[in-house]
């Protein structure tokens, strides 16, 4: 059996292309995984978050809880909102240095407002939020509330 030299070159060239593509793919996968690791944001309820505060100090995280009634305060100079969120009896002070908050973040008696804040826990013990999300009640919750005579927080 005779082997043609041109066929061997093609095979070697093909093998080289396959190796180069595999290396490029591995490099891209490594970059994606490294990039995701750096920007991954953990989401925890207030009580779990505060039990791990040594591990999360200064890291970007999301914290979930309910607005503590009577705690929502607006400061004019500098423009900032301050409030407390809680879960299972554990409270977290939140500072949000923005002039505008979501419409659904209202302190209305007898309406529980779920809040998710994203930001970093500060050495002083408060959470500096870069974004605030107030959860809207589902349509099923709203039907139950309407039957009790309650109104949605954003319709007040």
Automatic annotation (TrEMBL):
MF (Gene Ontology): heme binding
GO cellular component: plasma membrane
SUPFAM superfamilies: Heme chaperone CcmE
The UniProt record lists the keyword Membrane: yes
Keywords: Cytochrome c-type biogenesis, Heme, Iron, Membrane, Metal-binding, Transmembrane, Transmembrane helix
GO biological process: cytochrome complex assembly; protein-heme linkage
Subcellular location: Membrane
Transmembrane segments: 15-36
Main location: membrane
Full protein name: Cytochrome c biogenesis protein CcmE
UniProt lineage: Bacteria, Pseudomonadati, Myxococcota, Polyangia, Polyangiales
């Amino acid at each position: 059996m005779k082997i043609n030299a041109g066929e061997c070159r093609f095979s070697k060239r093909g093998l080289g292309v396959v190796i180069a593509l595999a290396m490029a793919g591995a490099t891209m996968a490594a970059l994606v995984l490294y990039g995701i690791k750096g920007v991954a944001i953990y989401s925890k309820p207030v009580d779990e978050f505060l039990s791990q505060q040594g591990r999360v100090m200064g890291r970007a995280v999301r914290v979930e809880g309910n607005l503590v009634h009577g705690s929502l305060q607006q400061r004019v100079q500098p423009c900032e909102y301050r409030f407390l969120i809680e879960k299972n009896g554990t409270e977290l002070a939140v500072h949000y240095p923005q002039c505008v908050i979501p419409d659904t973040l209202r302190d209305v008696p007898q309406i529980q407002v779920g809040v998710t804040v994203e930001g970093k826990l500060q050495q002083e013990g408060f959470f500096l939020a870069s974004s605030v999300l107030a959860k809207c009640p589902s349509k099923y919750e709203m039907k139950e509330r309407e039957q009790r005579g309650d109104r949605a927080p954003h319709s007040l």
